[in-house]
Design a protein that fits this description.
alpha+beta; L-fuculose-1-phosphate Aldolase; 3-stranded antiparallel beta sheet
Length: 175
Amino acid sequence: WLMTPTNASLGALDPDEISKLDWDGNLRSGKPPTKESFLHRAFYDARPETGAIIHLHATHSSAVSCLAGLDPASCLPPITPYFVMRVGRLPLIPYYRPGDPELGTAIRAHAANHAAVLLANHGPIVAGQTLEAARNAIEELEETAKLYLLLHGHDTRPLDEDQIEELRQTFSAHW
């Protein structure tokens, strides 16, 4: 599998430096992978249908991950239908220091039932059947986090259970 190298900037990523790993996580070519490669492996292990994992330190979702009082079962409310359809419930994983292998265990506990998680004080991880699906989900998560922060402290009107059920039936949403 392919992984961004340690300390890589996505804006300056050289394709020849991408870490190429075997299924056991051993480096085959490229630069050494990120110390968080086990996060990706946890999702692949728990969700066999997964074809791509994206983990970012995106501004708005990372900001949400630092808020107190989040619902650990789903950090963001269903404020848009596309969040429900592309991301679903977003559990909060408690804080672990970057690179702590125990984080992999915490992710595995949620990954089988959720295509995305939010790492406390860190950022999101999203799984998709394809790289395009994972990219679409992470973009939707980031935009929903931005909306959430803009609306924070205001009365909001999240989708109700009937609206969510219609999304489940029509689009196979996993809320």
